[in-house]
Amino acid sequence: MVPGLYERLIDADLAEALAASDLRVVSGRVDTADVPHVLTTHLAARIESALNDARGKERLELANRLLAILDASALHESREDNSEKMPSQGSPDQLLSLWPAHFDRAPGRPEIPLADVALLTNGPQDPGLAAELIKEMASADRVDLLGSFIKWTGVRTLLPGLEALARRGVPIRVLTTTYIGATDRKALDKLVDIGAQVRVNYFSASTKLHAKAWIFHRDSGYSTAYIGSSNLSRSAMTDGVEWNVRVSQVATPHVMSKFAANFDSYWSSPDFEPYDPPNDAERLEAALAGARGLSGPSVTTSTVTALAVRPYPHQQLMLDDLEAEREGGRHANLLVAATGTGKTVVAALDYVRLIDRLNDAGRRVLPRLLFVAHRKEILRQALRTYRDVLHDGSFGELFVDGQRPTDGDHVFASVQSLRDVEVFEPDRFDVVVIDEFHHAHAASYRKVLSYLHPKELLGLTATPERGDGVSVADAFFGGRIASELRLWDALDADLLVPFHYFGIADGTDLRRLTFRRGNYDQAQLSALYLADQSRAAKIVENTHKYVSDVGHMKALGFCVTVEHARFMAAFFTASGIPALALDGSSSREERAAGLATLRSGEVNAIFAVDLFNEGLDIPDIDTIIMARPTQSATIFLQQLGRGLRRTPTKAVLTVLDFVGHQHADFRFDVKLRALTGLGRRKLRKAVEAGFPFLPAGCYIELDRVTQKEVLDNLAQTVKLNATQLIHDINVHAGDTRPYTLRSYLHDADRPLADIYAGSTMVTVRGRKIPRAWQALASLAFDGGETIGEASVVELDLLRRIRAFTHVNDRPRIAAYRSILRELAIAETAAEAKEALASLGDQAAYAPMLYFSLWPTGEPAQMATKLWEAARSRIFRSELEQVLEVREEVLRTVARPLSGRFAAVPILSHGRYTREELLAGFGVGTMDDEKPGNVREGVKYVRHLEVDILLVTLRKSEADYSPTTLYRDYAISPTLFHWESQSTTGENSPTGQRYIHHESRGNGVVLFVREAKTGEMGTEPYTCLGTARYVGHRGSKPMAIEWELGRPMPAHMLGSAKLVS
Q: Which residues belong to any copy of the PLD phosphodiesterase domain (predicted)?
């Protein structure tokens, strides 16, 4: 046992340990009134530990035995050895502290018992917060403070306790911000002076941290924390009206775990920068003054900032996507993201990556660059960004307004200056970046694009569609967008204003209107709306209901036709809400005048038809009125995006979506998935629960009628049964033959899960068939003749195809294709075995392919079974079509594992089933265990001396489970917190192997998945690569911190981290 404060009952085992200890023991009798509570806390911990160690029905059996004891009052039955764990009469003793014998006395205790929870309100019956904090400090082994601002008066109040911590050498960590400029520099300087580590978030305009909390870590296990409204100021500490909750490791372990995990995540975040007064005081003063709206002291700046430019998470996602596109051989790429999200920073960081890609080994010559924009201000800002990223104040030259480049190697040019682009050779530039690429249809841009032949072309735009709806993605990039910033990523990054979305039933019946390829007949829809005054009245009524001040509202409404827009504008105006209509036929002068009246407040709403009109981009828009149904996710997000621009006066975007009884083929899931970022499997549950998990500040509300309409629609369209799928395939295929899986998914806007999710065998027209593309297509096109000719073995192979729907790296796709192609040529099983051996490095993938099809198969049968599979034309065709679909959507840059695992056919950032990854490490071929029989979350592969750790982040199927969420999580892109099995102690052979794996030559490879199940059933794992032991806390289980050899992919970091 370690020195510290305790509140632990002394039973026989503890009494024996205390007798053998050389520490001074302080104990005390539990008050009679507190005995039930203290005993309950003690027993609860023991029971939970026993239940954690038990498995399956053993847990219920143990619970039932305990209940039987309680029900039968069996406490009075005698024990055979006549010994008792606790005295049966009177009050038990309680250990209060343990301290080295040379201590004069134990430190004071807080007024609130260490195991208790309390609410402090600075009331007359409450202990003072400052006094309690000082007493908590007296026995703490580590202290963490999180405060949005820190005042000198607060530090001064707590100085005795803080200085006592410093004298004892207790580590103190402090996180704060420049929020509203309230922090006192003197307070931070003093904290640093007494030995605290202080980190500051300087981005006051976007920081979301308003938390105030302390945590007092105690090695004895009796840690405590204070969470509430009190910043570190005098009034908050003493007489302010503040509410603070005191929690404890004993009573609320999961709250404490969440606190500690979140603090560590913030501490490791690059957003919080170490504060060192001699070097950073001037910067801090300037940031605080700026946050207060004042001009701070002058700060000398050089041509290039000294700070490293690092990507935000949403920018890292875009960089990863661009790298994946180039890995796939695509060197003309389009990046789509809203204005203000840092597209130019992404382009500059991408250029840095290209330096190594475009240079020969050992050389580092800057690739020749042309950056094109249409305004001088944009070019200047872009040049500054590239210089900052490259740390080179002389990088680049402007080519604009008469300024001409001298070297011409790194040019930032206006499109007007490139009228004579022929002054450059066509292949002069390695990299060409064109900002606002939606202008590319203009003749001036087309001339540049057709003349130059760069190695890499990157287009940047917020709106890929031009005024007539034609997309530059289709015209210049083969219809492919390399990376598009997702709405929820932008909201999480605090780049856009939050939305409040209201789905409101409007009472109209659209079920009999013509509906083709995701759209209603415009004339029919417009005629219906124009004839319905009551619908327009309902829109006005709900605008008043949901908008806080209609008189100051700046709304944009989307309508079906020009007539409908004019009708809505006239109706709003007649109802006392000034409005006007604009559309593509309006003259430039009319549009400019109309937009000016909205900005000035002369009108409160503009109703429009033409979504793609750039003139409708008004940042001040605070209300969106969707007066027409929209199924397209692209159009819906474009509509929404018109109001998501941040302004100093806009707190939220109000979205009013008026919903009728939709046609049977209308799909609500398309736009709801775009709005929420939820997968199809979770969408129905979210609708039923009222969308509880959304980005901070966002809200979705569907009225009762709309909720039922949406749920009924989701039930019909989200997950089609086999009969519905066959009909849908027929409808979309028309006369096209052959009709491929890829074509259907594209035409129907469906994911792969719609084909393969659910039961692997389905009954259609009285026949049992595999739920697979070939079987469904056969019934759609030839009455089932093709699938009817398949053998039993082939049908079983088709059932296993879903085991390949996650494959996300090109080496594996190529290997699986090669294996089947070579084996298909073989005439005999013996030739098949030789063919496998001749495949070289790709032969290592054969066990992965084999155990994916037969998880518990015999290794000796591998060549024969794979040969039989390869000879099946229907199986090979099915797998090839799935791999074709997966190859098209690859967004992963997979890399070989480091060190001695480089030859293993498992790649970091690749996704694998359990059977596949275990087979890749030789399980099933190099030992006697079959991959399909391994069920544990850890596996030590002895012949490779490697620990494989399989982690499920969300262990409970519930959306939120506070008891399991904080065991395994990402602290940063390269640090991962992992909790071992509950039986693994730090001194056990396994625990020691983890701790000393590097010195012993053992390896650790980490695999992570978000949940146990997903849309396709059992979820695959993402390989995070090799890991190195950093440190641990606790035992049975051990909480280990691993350092990854390669930063985890940005999309996985978003799922694995605890803080946004």
A: 205-236
